[in-house]
Amino acid sequence: MAGEHKEAGGSFWLPDDILIDILSYLPAKSVVRFRAVSRSWRAMLSSASFVELHLRRANRRDQLKVFFHPAMPTDAEHPDKCCFYSWQLHGGPAKKLMRDDFAHGWFAAPVTKPLRGLVLIRSSYGYYVLNPSTNAVLALPDRKFPLKNRIDLVTNLSGYMNVSYGLGYCSATGEYKVVRLFSDPVSGQAPATNGEVFVLDALACWRPSAQQPPPEFIFDESNPAVFLNGLLHLLCLYGFDVITFNVSDETFGSAPPPPVDVDEVGEVTLTEFDGCLGAFYQEAHSDNYAYHIWLLRDHAHEAAHWEQLCRIDMAA
Are 270 and 235 in contact (CB under 8 A)? Predict the structure, then answer.
């Protein structure tokens, strides 16, 4: 029978399509172990179609999880280490995923939400791409001290005062891209902004983006890019303009800025809420610690507009 594997003793293995269906429900760490069974299993479980199926089933809406990293050490066996956890929204205990050994004792924190299983992590030691399901960690080049950032501390070298990172995925090519945008040059010797791309493959290195960022904007490390609908969204440091970066063709555009008064709000942060670009901020002159959450509706159309989702009064 086609698609079945027969052993010498006459017993039959399951057909390939049924086998793939069963394995697609397993945790990622189990799938990685099964890849070692044989070359054919490795090819089958590494194929783009299986990866898509596994991701789709692992991210069902009824199994939404929170990915987080406590600020204090939580590993009883290694009291100097922190761990990454996932917690399912319906309740129950948090699940420990892995220790942050790669941080070398420094605090590590997620920069982005999980994107198809990968997370961009920042620590005092640098930037990393992490797969918490398989414990795989990739240290990005220039991770401890990006060569174009804060080189004002070194004499006779030009650099930038600000940098912002983001992680995106190109569905057309299946490529993951880390993007970093430098801005606010220390001297007039450097361009006003500088965009670089790191494609996650075996031969990856930082290279200039196909198009460079608009020169009039400043991007800050404390407000990383948000990936949504093929675009990375970056909030400018002054004025709250939203700049977009198309991960596919590496061009820049813009989105409507959140309707906030610069003088009436504190720090504005971009995020993603249920498939929409979101912005939240605290009232600057409020004693009640009130927070506002806005959503950008019809994001991909000319009719895109911001709509207030809620106001949270922390004193209520």
Answer: yes
